Amino acid sequence: MHDPPKFPISSSSMSSCTASFCSTDMEEERYASKKRVTSDAQHDLRTDHTSVEKQSEEMENFGGFYPAARPPFTLAQLKDAIPKHCFHKNTGVSLLFFFKDVCMVAFLMSLASLLDTYTPLHYPLYWLLQGMLLFSTFLIGHDCGHGSFSDNMFVNHLVGHLAHTFVLVPYHGWRISHINHHQNHGHADKDEAWHPITEKLYRSMSHRQKLFRYSPLALLSFPIYLWTRTPGKTGSHFHPNSPLFKRIERKDVMISTACWVAMLLILLALCWLFGATWIVKLYLLPYLVSVAWLGGVTYLQHHGYKHKIPWYRGKEWSYIRGGLSTVDRDLGAVNGLMHSIGTHVVHHLFPQIPHYHLVEATKAIEPILGNYYREPEKSGALPLHLLRTLVTSLQEDHYVDDEGNVVFYKSGKS
Fold first, then answer.
1. For the chain, which residues make up each domain, given as ranges?
2. Which PANTHER family does the record associate with it (predicted)?
């Protein structure tokens, strides 16, 4: 920071000047960072391609910055830039978020049931709002699985089971596979969630399979994924002997599967007591909306940027490069309701940061990231702009090459 002027000045003027100098310094730092990483990207590209024409073509395709270039900073440097308190987990604050979600879900369910006596016209709005809240509840369990909810693992697993079982997710089974996703993020073959399909597998898919995988219907595939995983992978999140799990994890998986079965039995009992229509209106349809939110948000965190996103294999993959291949999304007013899930890059790099510190942590590392940070398109109150992005990506991002250590999505359109 610049020293204050050496001549008399009022406190208000000094405050204004100091703020201005700070702002200028930050802008200069951000500009210098972007300039530096662009230069490094160009150098990396020249190393990989001997043809001058190929270099120019690639740089033009990616808007002048090659996203697969090795970053000129380390994970440790990014961590040092984040305020230490961002890594602090406050169990009390986390529990307040959980109880807020539970109370809002119960309130909306009670209100919808009460209004049913007078008119059914409120249900579409109820399904939309309740679906968002059920997704928020799922995200509480997500944080528990990462251990970012609390430093107490018993609290993490207890709340995680309560949150995930209510939305029909086997807590430990999904927690373990999601950790695998984070440990292999951006790896074209080893990633767990929404990983790319190879050209060979794409060509072998039937028309019906392609129609489902590359249409908005794919957003409802999460329950199927829990049972069978994604195309090209085997195993189940419910079976303790699944290749997803180590022997030491099998007991945990059995406990979570038992909780899932108990929740299913509770829903069946409520169907018997109040009728299937009651359960469909109050629970099943909001549940499907929450599944669509989960599918859409997680898909767009790894796909659909205006320039293609790199995927890696072999020696080209690293934890930091994989994390930098993720995308932040501006969800508007919804982002706060959904526990800052749109703030995704810093979460992938440092999953131990609680959700209520993600925005601050992102701002702290953005000047260092430079062009490696993909600025999210600004949203209105609702992120309706992402519908266009989602549909476009589903229509164009079909497969990656079977071989190669740095690959990008290609279109299967003939």
1. 82-414
2. OMEGA-6 FATTY ACID DESATURASE, CHLOROPLASTIC
Distance of CA 118 to the CA centre of its chain: 40
State which amino acid sits at residue 160. Answer: G
**Residue 231 pLDDT > 90:** no
Asked whether 334 and 382 are in contact (CB, 8 A), the reply is yes
- Are residues 291 and 222 in contact, defined by beta-carbon separation less than 8 angstroms? yes
Q: Is the model more confident about 255 or about 43?
A: 255
Tokens of 184: 């292999």
Distance set, CA 17 to CA 1, 5, 31, 371, 379 (Å): 11, 9, 21, 29, 32
Question: Which neighbouring-strand residues pair with 157?
Answer: none
Residue 414's pLDDT is 57
The region, left, alpha or beta by phi > 0 then psi within -120 to 50, assigned to residue 249 is alpha
CA distances from 372 to 4, 65, 288, 368 (A): 34, 9, 35, 9
- Taking residue 193's Cβ as centre, other Cβ atoms within 10 Å add up to 19
pLDDT of residue 345: 97
Flag whether pLDDT at 321 surpasses 50. yes
pLDDT at 132: 97
pTM summary value: 0.85
pLDDT of residue 62: 63
Alpha helical stretches, state H, 49-170: 52-61, 75-81, 91-115, 123-146, 153-166
CA distances from 129 to 107, 222, 362, 382 (A): 11, 20, 28, 12
- The answer to whether the beta carbons of residues 345 and 375 sit under 8 Å apart is no
Cα dihedral sign, 401-403-404-405:
positive
Closest CA to 102 of 62, 47, 162, 150: 162
- The CA distance from 253 to 157, in Å, is 12
User: CA-to-CA distance for 374 and 370, rounded, in angstroms?
Assistant: 9
Q: Which residues pair with 187 in a beta bridge?
A: 312
